[in-house]
Amino acid sequence: YFRLTEARLQRQLSERDVKSGEANLRIIERRYARGISSSLDVRLARSSLAASQATLTNRQQTESESARRLEVLLGRYPSAEIAAAKNLPNIDTLKDNSGYAGSPASLLTRRPDVLASEARLKSAGLDERAARKAFLPTLSLSASAIENELSSRDTSFDYDDAIQNLAANLTQPLFQGGRLRAQARAAKADQEAAIYSYADTVLTAYREVEDALAAEEFLTAQEEAQRLAFEEAAAAEELTTRQYLNGTTNIFDLINAQQRRINNESQFIAASRARLTNRIDLYLALGAPFTLPSDEGQLVAEPAPSTLVQGPKTNSKGDRL
Question: Mapped to the 3 state alphabet, what secondary structure does 244-305 carry?
């Protein structure tokens, strides 16, 4: 949905660029007719307009494809008729120690892939509670983890040691009695495979959360930098336009200023969407709970412990999301 909204904004940006190029060409052709501008100015203006029109065509295609992908996800015929939002929503910045991510223990009890891996441990005859404790590091999965800091307690966490200790503690009591040696070896191999699979699942879950938290800081800084670049480029374009009309600068400076503004605005839109996508990745990595309200019949996310994405409440048609 956010990618479709971005595609819509990029297409609208290209449409404004084309209109601006058409207006520039008309002005330059009039100046050429009066002998103020040269034929080079006219050709450069035409070239710039043609490039803008080509970009617009490409972005129209991208918007249509994004709409069809969303329609397929919603189980609709891909007719590219679904509406997008007018703008990308604003989201709050994560702050250190805000508790957005919660604790590692809560992460292990929420993510479906971790719970499924624990179920496979249990089916292999192992204690999933002991496994969870063995693979519970002391790092705090809060926004302070953006800086990759661990808590003030013991921060050592050795993957190999955890595997060996867990395997020894969990498999030792399982092979007492008069079982056949071959069956014992096979069962032990299955259990060790389940342990390694669980370890990989848990560490992958931690990595996904840490990656999303770290990316939050970088993407926030990138979005702010792109915002500033766009604002300054827009001011420079306005100044260059006045200078060109007054005859104090040339067509090259004007076109460069316009393209710089267009590019920076486009990059700002992309940076805003990337930050939204990362926030969704963080939300999914945390395994936040979902419910299906009977009165609305729509899947609604209930973040825990607090809201991560403050998206739009309605779409462009006024329908509740």
Answer: HHCCCCCHHHHHHHHHHHHHHHHHHHHHHHHHHHHHHHHHHHCCCCEECCCCCCCCEECCCC
pLDDT band with cut points at 50, 70 and 90 for residue 139:
very low
Given a cut of 60, whether residue 148 has pLDDT beyond it is no
Share of the chain above pLDDT 70, in %: 67
Instruction: Report the distance separating Cα 186 and Cα 179, nearest Å.
Output: 11
Report the half-sphere exposure of 270 (CA within 13 A, side-chain side): 11
| 19/132 Cα distance (integer angstroms) | 60
The pTM for the full model equals 0.69
Query: Sorting pLDDT into bands at 50, 70 and 90, what band is 12?
Result: very high
Q: Which of 225, 224, 249, 222 is nearest to 237 (CA)?
A: 249
Give the tens place of pLDDT for each residue, 264-273: 999 999 999 9
Output the pLDDT for position 287: 83
| Residues 99 and 142 sit within 8 Å (Cβ to Cβ) | yes
Token pair 């008729």: residue = 81
Give the C-alpha separation, 43 to 251, whole Å.
10
pLDDT tier at 115, thresholds 50, 70, 90:
confident
Q: What token pair was written down for 118? A: 């624990």
**Among residues 299, 296, 302, which one has the least CA distance to residue 110?**
302
